[in-house]
Input
Amino acid sequence: MPFSLDPVQFALGAIAIAVTVFSGGHALLHKRDPRAALGWLAACVFWPLLGALAYWLFGRNRIRTRALELSERFPGPAVDVRSPGDHAVATTVAAGEFAQLARISGVVTGRALLGGNKVTPMRCAEETYPAMLDAIRSAERSVHLATYIFDNDRVGGEFADALASASGRGVDVKVLVDGVGECYSIPRISTVLRKRGVSIRRFLPPSLIPPSVNINLRNHRKILTLDGARAFTGGMNISDRHYTEKPRSRRPVVDLHFSVEGPVVRQMEEIFLADWAFVTGDKHVFDPPEVDRAGSSLCRGVSDGPDEDLDKLKWILLGAISSAEESVQIMTPYFIPDSDLSATLIAAALRGVTVEILLPAKLDIPVVAWATRAHLEPLLEFGVEIRLQPPPFVHTKLLIVDGHYATIGSANLDPRSLRLNFEFNLEIYDRDCATELVAHFEDARDRSRSMTEAEIKGRSLAVRLRDSAAFLFSPYL
Output
């Protein structure tokens, strides 16, 4: 009996091959991590249509595409910004022994290092939220707030009242909340604020029509700017969970936030308005008032994200650690270093630099804790000191080098922050501010217990297998 091929089967097979080749080729061309490229290529080959569908839903960076579309609609930057004026400083002179790092971050970010700033740490919600609320209530020109989580709880209600009041008296109020982060509480805060006349937008919210589910690519930034002259940033969301002296939650979260005054607020406002333009499609002319010197800190804003800003923060972190001569002090809740970061930390320790890392003893996401442990053995083996902070859960993100340079903000040291999220960090070149942060770090260190190499090597086989399995998924945790 002669062989005959069903035309429908032939057409379906041809389509499957074409989709597989096109999708696999796209992954090879556009994935910068070879492991990710290989994984998606294998998925497309072994599950021809299903793998390709998964790639186009979850593997393609639609944020970069969206950013390019926006730039085509509005040639030039999404935000027109005046020059930084007299506050820009010569990095090779003002940054002293950190001149090379200042040069690196200047090239990477394209932003000037600005003098005349004052950065004030605030150690708990009891100290932070009243200051933020007072600033909103006294704002005369603008209030621009971006946050990942904005819970509709008691403190969320206080912020809603203050924002609605400011909007009612004619202040330009803009609120940007992450589309996934706002879902931590129901009803969503965007519904509450919109009913009260506050201009609020959601960053990449999940939707059924058109279908859009972006679990990754979240806006994790925490920025509040007021009248272009004062700002707040750090790791703190808006939630009752951050109250620790008088807890309002069964699972309180310790964090560090910062009040910022001076010319660098201009950069923070620029970053917020660029995000606003991304979400709304509206171009803004940013013409803030001249800001007087408020202190002695040299500062620079660092935006990082899966669009044109990809890897900027990573290169700055690697440069900062590589420039260390005496000490590197890191505090972070989520620590899943890639090979570059691990090698840089180990190299610093081998050079005789004291490298200390503070992590929470118990994480709120167990699988991340498992993946973290799978990364710690080589660090401990080569002299990196790792300590575990006791409960409550510490959410602070902080890096200090040689008691002079610091970077603070929203980014964790894990792939989600450094590759998948939109983050904001602030560089600080100032010994006085860094000294205050060192004291905070050392106080936390003295209350923490050391993790040993024997402890990591002594895990049972079942635990090691579990941790190693979590390690496989670490690029997506």
Notes: The chain has three domains: 7-60, 66-90+114-298, 312-476. The radius of gyration is 24 Å. Residues 66-90+114-298 form a domain with the Endonuclease; Chain A fold (CATH 3.30.870.10). The mean pLDDT is 87.
